[in-house]
Each structure stands twice: as C-alpha cells, then as structure tokens.
Amino acid sequence: MSWSRRLLTASAVGAGALAVTALTATTADAHGAMFGPASRVAACYAEGPETPKSQVCKDLVADSGTQPLYDWNEVNLASANGQSQQIIPDGHLCSANRDKYRALDWARTDWPATTVTAGAKTFNFRVTAPHQGTMKLYLTNGGYNPTKPLKWSDLDLANPIATYATARTSDNGYYNVGVTLPQRTGRQLVYMVWQRSDSPEAFYGCSDVDFGGSPAAAAAPFAATNPSGPSETQIDAGAARSTVAHHGHGGDTALNSTNAANTVATADAADTATGPGSGDALLVLAGAGLLSATASGVFLTRRMRAAAVAA
Is residue 19's pLDDT more than 60? Predict the structure, then answer.
C-alpha cells in the first residue's frame, strides 16, 4: 500500500472515531422520577441507601443492594416504543420487568405513602435530562388490593389522571404535572409511563398514596407517611455512585452499544441528506482535519528519516 493511501486510510479511521465520540457525546437521554408524591425508588433513596429508615427500604437494600437506589432516575426500558403494556407482564410494572429493580414490585402495605384527597393537584417530577415525549399517570381502580402484585387491570387505563407533554426544557429540573384525582379510599398507587417521542425509550414509576378512610391501610406496619424525594444535596452526593449515563439508553450494556451505533448511523444519514451544518458536523470535520494533519506529519517525518539514511 502506498504512503498516500495509508495516510488517507489513517485519516478516515481517525475521523470515524472522532465522529462516533462527537455524535454520542451530545445524545442525552431523559431520566428522572416522581418526587411528589414520591415514587418508591425516590422515597427509599431519600432515606439514604446506606442507612434506610423504613422496613421496606431496608429489605430492598438487603435484597438488591444499594445500586438501584443510587440509580433512582433510571427505571427504564430502552426499546419500549409505545408497547409498554405488551412487553411488561403483570406483577412487574413498577420495576419495568428489570431484575435490578425487582424489589419495587413487592406487594406490601408498608411502602412510604403520601396522603392525598380527591381533586386537582400538581405532581412534581424531578427530571435529570429533559426530552420530548408524553407522560401519562394512572391511578389504581377501586378494586385495587395493595397486598397483591400490581396488574395492568388494576389501573384505570381508560382515564389517566394526567397526560403531560414533556419538553426539552424543564422548570429548574422539574416537570410540574397537573392531575385530577378521583374519589378513592385507602392505599392506592399512581403509575407513571413516560414514553419519549424522540426515542423508543420509556420510563416508569410507582408512587404509593393514601386517601384515608380504610382501617386496613391505617394499620399497615412500619409505613412511613408523606415521604419526600431526595434533596439536591443528596442527589449531588450520590452522583459519583450512580451508573446511569445520560448518553445511550441506560440499562443493558448491549443495548447501549447498539443504540450508540444506531445514533451514529442515523446522524450520518442526516448529514448526507442535508449536508454539514450542525455543531456536531463541524466538530467532526475539525477532528478529521486535525487527524489528517497529524498523519501527514508522521508521513513527512518518516520520509525525512529515510532520506537521511540513504544519504
């Protein structure tokens, strides 16, 4: 192979590597959890992964370790694509059928619960990477039994208590969702499905609420009331322990690699159709130029050495 061809090959390979880095580095996924009423994972994280207070959160850590709590904003499925009800089986709704979060599916009456009443409310969702999509909140129906695993039929799917269009921006890190709660009694559950429109990824959450008026609910052992989500100080302190990345799709490594490759392929196709013009394209071109210049310097240095030896 000629030196000129080797130079071109090296430049192309280097430019490709830079293109992957540039394009994947700017791809941010949506992550978060309901803080008010606090979801199960958020409430346990707020208690402290190393020192949980409620019995159910202690049991969660004993069963699954602290990592699910440090990864509080990643109860997701990378390839849901609007098919949540088809791909998440009954009894696994709160975990999104992910073994990592299996404890969230426990049918117990001692999950920390928020006291609520019927009527108009504002729920607060802490978002760590806002994206476009649709968040739907469902409330369990009148026949819900918290001592049994949550099923799709336990939810009033025909009448979500909120349908909220999420945007690429948030209000100081929150989506503030207006909801209307119907009449209920006792412990109920709010189920969240947040489907992105710019990706097949979806996020899920279970928030326990208590409407009162039920002796069985009031007698629940070890039940914490009105839990809060973690503070910003707690979030910052636990960030180093989190395995959640805001590029790729979270979850399984294989899915991360596949989705990253698909992102690059899609971006390449878009650049071919529209021509370079975005910040990513300019970065890729600049990187390619730098690599080309470096390769050229290597080429010239070797030729000069060869000439010196020949002399």
Answer: no
The per-residue pLDDT for 223 is 55
**Residue range 105-112: average pLDDT?**
95
Q: What are phi and psi of 185, to 5 degrees?
A: -130, 155
pLDDT of 265 > 50? The answer is no
Q: Cα 230 from chain centroid?
A: 16
Region 181-206: what's the mean pLDDT?
Answer: 94
CA distances from 118 to 136, 161, 209 (A): 18, 11, 11
> HSE-up of 187 (CA within 13 Å, CB side)?
25
* Mean pLDDT, rounded, for 9-25: 40
What region, left, alpha or beta, does residue 112 occupy, with left being phi > 0 and alpha being psi -120 to 50 degrees? beta
Q: What are the domain boundaries of the chain?
A: 3-24+257-310, 29-246
Token readout for 275 is 């021509």
Inter-residue contact 112 to 206 (CB < 8 Å): no
Cβ distance 14 to 295 under 8 Å? yes
pLDDT at 258 over 70: no
CATH assignment of 29-246? 2.70.50.50
- Segment 185-202 mean pLDDT: 94
* Nearest Cα residue to 127 out of 199, 30, 200: 30
Strands 114-115 and 32-36: unpaired
DSSP code, position 172: T
Distance CA 75, CA 242 (A): 13
Assess contact for 206 and 225: CB atoms under 8 A. Answer: no
The letter for the amino acid at 302 is R
